[in-house]
Write a structure and sequence with these properties.
Low-confidence stretches: none
Helix content: 40-55%
Number of strands: 10
Number of helices: 9
Number of domains: 3
Strand content: 5-15%
CATH topology of the largest domain: Butyryl-CoA Dehydrogenase, subunit A, domain 3
CATH superfamily of the largest domain: Butyryl-CoA Dehydrogenase, subunit A, domain 3
Oligomer: single chain
């Protein structure tokens, strides 16, 4: 199939992502999510050792030189393993360009996430973060970790949330193309969460028995799982389609990425909620995993700017 007719990542690109997926599955067991809010330092070292944070960098800069499609597929695997927002932000920071005269370099920094919220600038950063990646409307930039941050939440979202009035001077910024890459990775991570929610729901429906039968044999549970499967597939395919559009530098690439972000966000939120419903009361319990997916999905959607912002961008392009 010619490049002009390609709608999804090719087999070679998927094979590269599958190689990373095998490593990530071993490095990111779900059990870690009940032990700490943030990824431990040893895990950061292992992720760096497999080259995760350099996959999108040019080979001249010491990176792997992978394109948008490969990076999105790997980001999807990160979402499937419910990686912390700081890991995603550090991966995305590789696309930023240093501000002239900035004292700090981007390479090698551990970057946390941040977004504009009701409490001003909300930080979702690990305690050891060196900088933050701030999404502010249609722009994104990297800033040093600001001093004087106040604690907003330390448990509810499975991440240390802090607030500051102003993030300080930027040390790096993203052009329009790089912002689109950030949103593509966001969509891919959310699509991965939708897929994991589906897998957990199906596995539990086959395991749990009521009235002498698997609950997966009940029509209502079947419908939930079927709807989750459709949502996860739609998210995966739209992300794949958008990644190819970005890679081919098509004029509708930004539009397709926003569509992917909206589809994936809705799929992650809905599938995570339905996964809890399939699990029943145990889905809310502290030791179970379903509630973790919903909290992580809601937090990541907030970091991206929310579904309404994506809808507004889509509507403005359609009107144009």
């Amino acid at each position: 199939m010619s490049q002009a007719l390609r709608y999804h990542p090719c087999l070679e690109q998927r094979a590269i992502a599958d190689t990373f997926a095998e490593s990530l599955q071993a490095l990111l067991p779900f059990e870690r999510l009940h032990e700490a809010q943030c990824e431990p330092p040893a895990l950061w070292e292992r992720l760096d050792a497999i080259g995760l944070f350099a996959i999108g960098l040019d080979e001249d800069a010491g990176g792997a030189g992978l394109g948008a499609a490969e990076e999105a597929l790997i980001a999807m695997e990160l979402g499937r393993r419910l990686v912390s927002p700081s890991v995603i932000a550090t991966l995305g920071a590789g696309h930023a360009q240093a501000v002239p005269g900035a004292a700090a370099a981007i390479a090698g920094l551990r970057v946390g996430a941040a977004y504009r919220g009701a409490h001003g600038c909300v930080l979702v950063a690990d305690p050891d973060a060196d900088a933050i990646l701030l999404r502010d409307g249609g722009t994104a930039s990297v800033h040093p970790v600001p001093a004087g941050a106040r604690l907003l939440d330390d448990a509810l979202w499975l991440a240390p949330l802090q607030g500051v009035d102003a993030p300080g001077e930027a040390i790096a910024s993203f052009d329009r193309t790089a912002v689109v890459r950030l949103r593509l990775n966001d969509a891919a991570v959310l699509a991965g969460i939708a897929a994991t929610a589906l897998e957990l729901a199906v596995a539990y429906a086959l395991e749990r028995r009521q009235f002498g039968r698997q609950i997966g044999s009940f029509q209502a549970v079947k419908h939930h799982c079927a709807n989750m499967a459709i949502a996860a597939r739609n998210a995966r395919d739209q992300v794949g389609f958008a990644s190819v559009a970005v890679e081919q530098q098509r004029p509708d690439a930004a539009f397709q990425v926003d569509c992917a972000l909206l589809v994936a966000a809705n799929a992650a939120l809905r599938n995570a909620a339905l996964n809890i419903q399939v699990h029943g009361g145990i889905g809310f319990s502290e030791e179970a995993l379903p509630h973790v997916l919903l909290k992580r999905a809601r937090l990541l959607v907030a970091i991206t700017g929310g579904c309404e912002a994506a809808l507004e961008r889509i509507a403005s392009r359609e009107a144009a």
